[in-house]
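queue> pop job 88
queue> type: inverse folding (structure -> sequence)
queue> payload:
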């Protein structure tokens, strides 16, 4: 049996959502293949999504960002956690090398842990990165945002980014799905098309489950696996013409708002069946919404590396409207929802999501 060591960032669920279509496509092309999922992403995410044999090895692969909910990054806490993660770097890498060698995989794929890439290179396993961004680019935006009088801290932070780039430079190859950022840390990059999971809609099933009446739009509210601390439930309940399905708990007493847990459809079907999606600009949500012609209302963070490219992608190839953070918090969603719902079809046809097939062709050649 061929074995793939698959390191997946546990920052939200977007990295796992990017990897799953590639592994599924690879399983259709290459027989007798299994994945070791080295990740802090919970196993339930892969159940029903990943079609090849797999097992979880639950070890944190990177820090990502420390979040105060899905829309706010705690920059100081993010730097502090990264510095702790790097405090015994050589020991951490050696632990990963031993774990990799113990399983002797045929290939290592990382989305987008620099720890895994360095460990894979040291273990002399063919090592491939897969992502539209890299963590050095994310952290670079936060330099100097740790408060006054932190010159030594800023020096440590720059050294940390340099370490990330040295580790990324050990990859044999980086597969960059569109829309991807410029990444100078990797010695060889191959651009591939967008990656999107095939989705099967069940619009009538969703509308029946939420009690949507004729003329009402069903709005899916989801933020990439990071739970919302609060929502303006009372204001949303008063928005006529809309029903809401929330990825998270919903207090009792709301007729027009349901939790995804109460709707008997898998999340992919919910996405494909919704009339509008309210989200932050995350890779998988934006690409899949554009691919399946679902209007998007997005709330920007303005300090995440790939946000601008995804917003541009959503407007160029899809139907999208921005909702400010103040409007989101206050429940003033009507204007943005109406704008997304009534937006014209884009002049440019969306790119065909060929990324998983292209990645599979390359990965299969390495096996």
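queue> result:
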């Amino acid at each position: 049996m061929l074995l793939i060591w698959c390191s997946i960032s546990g920052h939200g669920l977007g990295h796992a959502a990017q990897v799953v279509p590639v592994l599924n496509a690879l399983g259709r092309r290459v027989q007798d293949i299994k994945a070791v999922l080295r990740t802090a992403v919970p196993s339930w995410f892969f159940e029903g999504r990943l079609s090849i044999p797999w097992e979880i090895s639950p070890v944190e692969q990177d820090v990502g960002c420390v979040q105060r909910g899905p829309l706010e990054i705690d920059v100081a806490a993010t730097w502090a956690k990264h510095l702790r993660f790097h405090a015994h770097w050589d020991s951490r890498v050696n632990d990963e090398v031993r774990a990799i060698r113990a399983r002797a995989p045929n290939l290592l794929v990382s989305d987008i842990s620099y720890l895994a890439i360095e460990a894979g290179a040291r273990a002399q396993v063919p090592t491939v990165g897969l992502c539209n961004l890299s963590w050095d680019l994310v952290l670079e935006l936060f330099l100097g945002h740790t408060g006054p009088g932190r010159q030594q801290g800023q020096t440590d932070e720059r050294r940390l980014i340099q370490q990330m780039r040295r580790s990324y430079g050990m990859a044999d190859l980086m597969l960059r799905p569109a829309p991807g950022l410029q990444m100078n840390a990797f010695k060889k990059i191959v651009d591939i098309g967008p990656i999107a999971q095939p989705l099967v809609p069940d619009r009538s099933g969703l509308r029946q489950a939420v009690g949507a009446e004729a003329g009402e739009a069903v709005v899916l509210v989801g933020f990439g696996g990071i739970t919302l601390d609060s929502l303006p439930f009372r204001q949303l309940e008063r928005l006529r013409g809309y029903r809401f399905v929330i990825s998270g708990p919903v207090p009792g007493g709301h007729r027009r708002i349901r939790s995804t847990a109460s709707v008997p459809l898998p999340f992919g079907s919910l996405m494909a069946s919704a009339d509008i999606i309210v989200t932050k600009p995350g890779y998988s949500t934006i690409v899949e919404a554009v691919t399946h012609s679902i209007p998007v209302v997005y709330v920007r963070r303005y300090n995440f590396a790939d946000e601008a490219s995804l917003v541009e992608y959503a407007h160029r190839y899809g139907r999208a409207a921005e909702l400010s953070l103040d409007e989101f918090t206050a429940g003033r969603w009507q204007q943005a929802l109406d704008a997304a719902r009534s937006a014209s079809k884009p002049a440019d046809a969306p790119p065909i999501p060929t990324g998983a097939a292209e990645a599979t062709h390359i990965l299969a050649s390495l096996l």
